[in-house]
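Per your request, structure below.
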């Protein structure tokens, strides 16, 4: 066993992968990896933060933020994409701690009227589509945060554009932004809370996230990141006019690093809620995260240890339990990977979707082998 362990350590050193338990890379080493990633992928901008022992160890930005060549900096406003869902899940757990939300009580009980009776609400969705399928009455906040509502990602993904329930809520994982919007609707219309205000009061302000919002702010314009698509086309930064818990967050790498550190430490949550958030709750049974509603694999072919947490995906790897969450659109690639041991995380934001091809190697270089199932997260890539 000692011989095998020694050989494994030698193999890690030869491949450049940090040995488990070693100090995380210093800023110069992070910069070298970032520049290599930009060169290899052709991506224009990349921001990286490292968390160690629950504290922000380094925050750096590389490349440019727009076609003019203005530098990407650690306080450049970037699109958070679906990492917004993790921030939202943290807020929901704060509401759980305050007795305002019960993870396992149907969302229907949070609303004064039956869900389909609300009809088509432009800011949320057409809940009238669910009339005739009583399973909407069984959807819980836990189903939403583990992506097991039965919805497609969004109703516009359906052939007829109508929202429907494809499987019994809670029975399997299938990624859904529409489910997140349902819980936002219940919090805002059922509990009478303003989600944007709650996020600022409960998270952003206490953590010093001064340049983070789920709704566009005019002051963002002075240092804003545009994006690049897979074919190198520049896309202007979207000025999102509505708070959307599924993915409207604008933030900076410096701000989001503060959240990542607080998340892995368990700040602003009870110990029970922090444990529940990252606990493997619902086994994931598909070959890849997308497309949603994909067939389930036979049990023998499923990835062991991969499960939905609350707003994150939990996994078991070489360093023990961890969790991750990605964010993506046509011109954005983001990832957050945390390992519970030593409370270590790497947070990567890019305003160029081409950078995603470098994420598996970057995370390995910065954290060592974690066990993140990149074949499931990024099935189109060949750099797992």
């Amino acid at each position: 066993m000692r011989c095998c362990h020694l050989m494994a350590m030698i193999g890690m050193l030869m491949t450049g992968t940090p040995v488990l338990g070693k100090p995380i890379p210093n800023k110069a080493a992070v910069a070298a990896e970032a520049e290599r990633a930009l060169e290899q992928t052709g991506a224009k901008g990349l921001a990286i933060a490292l968390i160690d022992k629950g504290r922000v160890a380094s925050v750096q930005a590389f490349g440019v933020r727009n076609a003019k060549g203005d530098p990407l900096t650690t306080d450049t406003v970037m699109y958070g994409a679906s990492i917004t869902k993790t921030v939202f899940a943290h807020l929901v757990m704060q509401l759980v701690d305050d007795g305002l939300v019960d993870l396992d009580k149907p969302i229907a009980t949070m609303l004064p009227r039956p869900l389909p009776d609300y009809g088509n609400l432009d800011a949320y969705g057409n809940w009238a589509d669910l009339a005739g399928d009583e399973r909407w009455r069984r959807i819980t906040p836990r189903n939403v945060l583990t992506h097991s509502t039965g919805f497609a990602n969004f109703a516009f993904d359906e052939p007829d554009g109508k929202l429907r329930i494809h499987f019994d809520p809670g029975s399997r994982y299938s990624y859904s932004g529409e489910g997140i919007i349902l819980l936002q609707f219940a919090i805002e219309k059922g509990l009478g809370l303003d989600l944007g205000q709650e996020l600022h009061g409960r998270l952003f302000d206490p953590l010093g996230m001064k340049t983070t919002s789920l709704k566009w702010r005019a002051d963002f314009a002075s240092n804003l990141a545009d994006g690049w698509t897979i074919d190198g086309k520049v896309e202007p930064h979207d000025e999102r006019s509505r708070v959307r818990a599924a993915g409207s967050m604008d933030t900076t790498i410096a701000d989001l690093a503060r959240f990542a550190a607080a998340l892995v430490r368990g700040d602003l949550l009870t110990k029970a809620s922090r444990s529940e958030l990252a606990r493997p709750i619902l086994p994931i049974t598909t070959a890849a995260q997308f497309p949603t509603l994909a067939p389930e694999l036979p049990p023998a072919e499923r990835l062991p240890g991969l499960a939905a947490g609350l707003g994150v995906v939990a996994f078991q790897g070489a360093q023990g339990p961890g969790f991750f969450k990605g964010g993506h659109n046509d011109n954005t690639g983001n990832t957050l990977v945390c390992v519970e041991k030593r409370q270590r995380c790497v947070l990567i934001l890019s305003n160029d979707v081409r950078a995603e091809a470098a994420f598996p190697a970057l995370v390995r270089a910065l954290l060592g082998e974690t066990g993140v199932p990149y074949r499931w997260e990024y099935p189109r890539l060949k750099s797992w």
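The two ends are 28 Å apart (CA to CA).

Regards,
D.
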